[in-house]
Predict the structure.
Amino acid sequence: DVKVTQSSRYLVKRTGEKVFLECVQDMDHENMFWYRQDPGLGLRLIYFSYDVKMKEKGDIPEGYSVSREKKERFSLILESASTNQTSMYLCASRSSQGSGANVLTFGAGSRLTVL
Amino acid sequence: KNQVEQSPQSLIILEGKNCTLQCNYTVSPFSNLRWYKQDTGRGPVSLTIMTFSENTKSNGRYTATLDADTKQSSLHITASQLSDSASYICVVINNNAGNMLTFGGGTRLMVKP
C-alpha cells in the first residue's frame, strides 16, 4: 500500500520558533508538494519540487522554505513561526510520467498551532 | 485565471437521502478532473477521475459527471451513510507541461441519522 507519511500529526509552537515538517513517500515519485489548508480558502500551494534538490515557489511561499535532499523526503521549514501560520499542512506526491501524473497522493496532514 | 468553484459550501442531509455536489471550472487547457474525499483531520483521498471524453463514472454510491462544454462537474451520492460526512474537493488538472492542479474550496457534507 503506497504511502505519504507526515511525521507530526499535531504540533504546538511559539511565535518565533523554527518549525520543521517532514514528509516521506515510498512511491519513488518525482514530484512532491506542500499545501496549507484553511477554512474557506481551500488548499493553497506553498512549494513544490520536481526532483531532488529542485524547488519551485507555489502561490504562497512567503515565510516558508523547503528542502529536498533525497527523492523520498520533502521538508517544509518555517524559519520563524508566526500566528498566521497556524493551519493544516498537507504533503502530497505524484509521478511525473503517464497516468500517474494525474494522481496526487496526500499525507494525513500536520495540524500546526502557533501561539 | 484558472479557477474552480464548488457549491454548496456546506450541506446537511439525513441518512439515506441522496445529494449532488457541484464543481464549475475555468481551467484551460483541460486535462482531467478529480474528486477527493477528505475526512476530518485527514488528508484527501481520491474518489474518481474524469477525463475529457468521459461523461459519467461511478464508484459505488458515488457517481461523477462531466460536461466539458459547460465546464461543469457534479458528484452525486446515493443512499447517503453517516460515513459520507466529509469534505469533498474538486481538483482540475491542466493539460500542459506542468500538469498543474487547481483546487476548489470544497463542499462540507454532514449526514445526520
User: Anything to note?
Assistant: Chain B touches chain A at residues 31-32, 34, 36, 41-46, 49, 89, 91, 93, 99, 101, 103-106 (CB under 8 Å).
